[in-house]
């Protein structure tokens, strides 16, 4: 009779990362289907956070538009911006936003 535990016990190694040097992004969901990059930049400009890029995607669903906004700010700035945008009504849609740290593998 085998009494060893079953399951996958992968080795987890903690990694220390300085979050202030990783690219910060805000994911904005539930955008109106007619939203444009310029329109997203316009609503974000009201909050004074430097936007480096805006990528729009509907991932094959024309009724579901999201934006990934790259920012020139730290994690606290990205979280603050997400908090200001989250729940905002824009063109009849209630936006959802959250801060993301994306590891790009670049130096």
Describe the structure.
The protein is an alpha+beta fold and 107 residues long. The protein has one domain: Alpha-Beta Plaits. 19% of the residues lie in helices and 30% in strands. It has two helices and six strands; from the N terminus they run E-H-E-E-H-E-E-E. It has helices spanning 37-45, 75-85, and strands spanning 24-31, 51-57, 65-71, 89-90, 93-94, 96-101. The strands form two sheets. A four-stranded antiparallel β-sheet has the order 2-3-1-6. A two-stranded antiparallel sheet has the order 4-5. Strand 2 and strand 3 form a beta hairpin. The chain is globular and about 30 Å long.
| Number of spatially distinct domains | 1
- Spatial strand sequence of the major β-sheet: 2-3-1-6
Number of β-strand runs: 6
In oligomeric terms, what are we looking at? single chain
What is the class in the CATH system? Alpha Beta
Low-confidence sequence ranges: 15-20
Query: What is the N-to-C succession of helices and strands?
Result: EHEEHEEE
Whole-number mean pLDDT: 81
Task: State the major sheet.
Answer: 4 strands, antiparallel
The CATH topology annotation reads as Alpha-Beta Plaits
The secondary structure category is alpha+beta
Helix tally equals 2
User: Helix amount, in percent?
Assistant: 10-25%
């Amino acid at each position: 009779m085998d009494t060893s535990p079953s399951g996958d016990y992968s080795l987890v190694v903690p990694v220390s990362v300085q979050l202030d040097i990783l690219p910060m992004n805000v994911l904005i969901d539930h955008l109106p289907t007619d939203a444009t990059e310029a329109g997203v930049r316009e609503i974000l400009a009201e909050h004074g956070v430097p936007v480096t890029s805006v990528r729009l995607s509907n991932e094959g669903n024309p009724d579901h538009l999201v934006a990934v906004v790259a920012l020139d700010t730290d994690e606290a700035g990205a979280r603050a911006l997400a908090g200001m945008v989250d729940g905002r009504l824009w063109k009849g849609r209630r936006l959802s936003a959250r801060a993301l740290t994306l590891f790009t593998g670049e130096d």
